[in-house]
Amino acid sequence: MEDMISLIWRRLPLILTISVLGVLISFYMIVSSPRTYQASAVIQLDMPAAIDQGSDSSLPASRRVQLIEQRLMARANLRDVVERLGLFADTPELSESDKLQALRSSTRIESISAPGVSVDSRMSLAAIIITSQAGTARTAAAIANDFADSVVNRDRDNRKARIEESYEFLAGEERRLNEQLAAYERQIVEYSARNEDSLPTSQEFVQSELGQLNELESAADRDIMALQRERLALEAGNLAAMGTRSSSSLVQQVRAAEIELAQARRTLAPEHPEIARLEANLERLNSGVEISAPDVTLRQLELIDTQLEELNQEKIALDARRKEIALARARIPQVARELDAMNRQLRRLQDRYAEISRQIAQVETQQLLMNNDQAERFLLLEEAVPPENPVLSDRKKKAVMGAGASGALALLAAFVLELMKPALRRERQFARATGTRPIISLPYRPTPAEVTARRYRHVYVVAVLVLGAFVALWLIGRVPGLPSPGVVATPTERLG
């Protein structure tokens, strides 16, 4: 301890100089540092019992806070905040980009997660804290409250606008899909009607129709053969009658007319003109008018020829229908592929229409919850109040730390100088260095020059102490008439 005291006394001017300079530098840095005030507003997320499944609440908390921060930190919103609060009014030289960047960097948005809830859950967000820094306490509180009001008041309008936009889009999409479905269904019906015989579902009926066609053709062949035999019989009877040149009696003519009418009714429809003619002929015979036998036979032959012609036309129609069915059955694979493709497209449109309908129902539910005030909403739980002290309030602690660091640096410099010029100045130092005690120890007598230098050193020490105290008082603004040195404001401080 004696060596240390001796070291300090010998190097006192150097130690005081370094210590005073360090303390003054610390004071200047503390005084020149800008004062920043910080204020915070707390917003609570109110989750009602009826939770909206399709709203932003289904997003994770981190994503939702990010969306809110992006809306608040948008360039247009920051410009509105600057205009509403009159920020940077005393610094017109700043550009708009610098103003917006300073406001953006001085505002922070944090989220508070609900305890016991997964981070990815839509209910994980419990509250939002908006913190703002500015050069004055009132400005910091005003900025935080303005952003909080934007979140609370504009959130409902933004969600309502999103719901209306979603509903308009989905309604238009539903109308478009409905028109496409109607047109596609008509197209499928028309295609199925054009290719009815080629449809896989119609093959059972087509096969049944083919059987009916074969039966009708067989019946037509039998009728043709019967008519041909009847015609031959009439021709043979006519020739026999003409050879004998015998005239038929009226009773025979009536009998022949009745037989002819019966045959015609068996093969022709009741409303056929030939039936009407034969009935008129029978009435004429019953009235006593005779008809020659050759005329009756000729009319019977003409009737048989007409029936044969009709049966032949019927066979032609049956054959044409059979060929048409054969061609249609050859196109079954192609029609099946095309119809299957059309049905797949129809199912896709139907699925899309069902999805759009489900989304419209969700949007309508959101709108109903919004109108009944049952949707998710933000509540201003705590307004930001002007802080009493700046953020950097530990000035005394920093001053003490600066003074201690300066003293330690001064002692270190003095110790280094002693090591550079070592000397044994005391008996104990000599004994520790040599291991023996000196026999005689004489006190050192300074020369007149050293006495004068010692006096100058005392004056220097006093001057350093007085000057250091004066500068320190001036830096902290305690010297009357001398204000503290000005500090250039930072962009955050200019918010005041």
From TrEMBL:
Keywords: Coiled coil, Membrane, Transmembrane, Transmembrane helix
Transmembrane segments: 12-31, 399-420, 459-477
Record bears the keyword ATP-binding: no
Superkingdom of the organism of origin: Bacteria
Alphabetized PANTHER family for the sequence: CAPSULAR EXOPOLYSACCHARIDE FAMILY (PTHR32309:SF31), TYROSINE-PROTEIN KINASE (PTHR32309)
Keyword flag Acyltransferase: no
Coiled coil (residue ranges): 160-194, 301-366
Name assigned to this protein: Lipopolysaccharide biosynthesis protein
InterPro entries given in the database record: Bact_polysacc_biosynth/exp
